[in-house]
Design goal:
Helix 2 packs across helix 13 and helix 8 crosses helix 12. It contains 17 helices and no strands. With about 500 residues, the protein is an all-alpha fold.
Length: about 500
């Protein structure tokens, strides 16, 4: 690539404007972001819910339709990666760092501040795990599946550029090469930067919490988190330089192994039978209540409405903001799989793994609070210090120090894989879909991601990170919905 693309130049300029705004006027950024977030959540929460559910129904339809046997590639193409490596990479990029952060914090939060009914009851405990399944289950992975499927189909079967705009050729024709197409790609890049920055900020907060737990002399504050972001930024840029086949693949495989080890540690050191029973019964109630949860807004209950906006609407916005990044990355590693194999794999395996994760981690936290005096909720500052949930729980299990160290390693490696995958994806999206973007492009996006995460933390901590996701996701919802019509039109032409 001899010169920078317009998408790269405009995206970098817009992102730098945002970063400088946050660095110079953090209070103003927080105030403006808060107003925009409140407006979108209150006025368009229904739109997020309906859109996510429509996307889920659409991808399920594709999996079991006559299009299911079509390959994401030429008819004789075979998958580039083993099933294990494929699952490891899509899972590590998709939500690994978030699971570690929220695995205990979210169920315990729901237990003490439930979506409805009384707190700290058996019913609140059931709802807590079920809603955690819901927020991390089929809906987010359907959003990822839609964009990944569409990108992989056009890139590997139709030899189109690997950009979001290229997937709209059936609807827009040659206009995808003009201002409309560039606008689509810029929106995707902007959503990716701040969707990923949210997770990087969460990772920095939790790594800081773990280090402070191990050594009280290490302060749990913004200055420490900046050093963490700086250190991990250097590491993930080194990983990104090595490429998908080496750094990202190896780290992703290692992530899954460490995650499974930590999950088994909680399972066998905690209330094992209770956790397995909880997983089994909650899977059933998740399926039973899925339609109701998918469209719940509580218009007659102000506290219930606030809960939905603070949790479900935020999550749907977060997944949508993440979708251009995760979708592009999953598409890149999914060449050669059939549409049916792809959708079932992307929907079922991460959903089941996530359900196990929340049953074991969240179930352990809730069990300690219900049948003991663990003080996890107090350690969390009653919802204000969610990064403390994991380490407060580990205090009550054997081999605490070893488990905390393992947890910090897992958070760090998830941090690195999410970020280096994002630098790769941002490089693709801003170089007309190059499968191996130039090193200088990846390094530029690596620095920008670290800067965005630092500024968001500086301007308002976790709230600023959440607001950035909600705001950046809104315009991308329309792109996702239009993408459904585009891929369906293209698939109809196969027959």
């Amino acid at each position: 690539m001899k010169k920078f693309t317009p998408v790269f130049i405009i995206s970098v300029c817009l992102t730098f404007i945002f970063i400088f705004w946050g660095a110079l006027f953090p209070q103003n950024l927080e105030a403006v972001s808060t107003t925009a977030q409140t407006f979108l959540q209150e006025r368009f929460g229904w739109f997020y819910l309906i859109s996510a559910s429509v996307i889920l129904l659409f991808v399920i339809y594709l999996a079991f339709s006559k299009y299911g046997n079509i390959k994401l590639g030429k008819d004789d193409d075979e998958p580039d990666y083993s099933m294990f490596s494929w699952f490891a990479m899509l899972f590590s990029a998709g939500m690994g760092i978030g699971l570690v952060f929220w695995g205990i914090a979210e169920p315990v939060s729901h237990f003490f501040v439930p979506p409805h009914g009384d707190a700290q009851t058996a019913e609140a405990a059931k709802d807590a795990i079920r809603y955690s399944f819901f927020h991390w289950g089929l809906h987010p992975w359907a959003i990822y599946a839609l964009i990944a499927l569409t990108l992989a189909y056009f890139k590997f079967r139709k030899d189109a550029p690997g950009t979001i705009s290229a997937t709209f050729y059936p609807l827009l024709g040659e206009r995808v090469k003009g201002p409309i197409g560039k606008t689509i790609d810029i929106i995707a890049v902007f959503a990716t930067v701040f969707g990923v920055a949210t997770s990087l900020g969460l990772g920095a907060i939790q790594i800081n919490g773990g280090l402070s737990f191990l050594n009280s002399d290490i302060p749990n504050d913004f200055s420490t988190q900046i050093f963490i972001i700086l250190g991990v930024t250097i590491l993930f840029m080194l990983s990104a330089i090595s490429g998908i086949g080496r750094g990202i693949k190896w780290l992703s495989n290692g992530n899954i192994v460490i995650a499974i080890l930590l999950m088994f540690f909680f399972l066998f050191m905690g209330p094992t039978t209770f956790l397995l029973n909880l997983f089994t019964t909650t899977i059933g109630s998740y399926i039973e209540y899925l339609p109701e949860m998918s469209f719940r807004l509580s218009p007659f209950d102000e506290s219930g409405s606030d809960w939905v906006q603070g949790w479900t609407i935020f999550y749907w916005a977060w997944w949508i903001a993440w979708s251009p990044f995760v979708g592009t990355f999953i598409a890149r590693v999914s060449k050669g799989r059939t549409i049916r194999e792809f959708i079932i794999g992307v929907l079922a395996v991460p959903t089941i793994f996530g359900a196990l994760w929340f049953s074991i981690f969240g179930g352990t936290g809730i069990h300690m609070e219900m049948f003991g005096d663990a003080g996890i909720w107090q350690a969390m500052g009653e919802g204000e210090l969610t990064e403390n949930a994991l380490f407060a729980t580990l205090q009550h299990l054997p081999f605490t120090t070893i488990a905390v160290v393992l947890s910090i390693i897992l958070i760090s490696t998830f941090f690195i894989t999410s970020a280096d995958s994002a630098t790769f994806v941002l490089g693709m999206q801003t170089t007309n879909g190059m499968l191996n973007p130039p090193l200088k492009i990846k390094l530029t996006w690596g620095l920008i991601q670290g800067g965005a995460a630092a500024v968001l933390l500086w301007s308002g901590g976790l709230n600023a990170l959440q607001m950035a996701s909600v705001i950046s996701a809104f315009p991308f919802v329309f792109i996702l919905l239009a993408m459904m019509f585009s891929i369906h039109k293209a698939l109809k032409e196969e027959f």
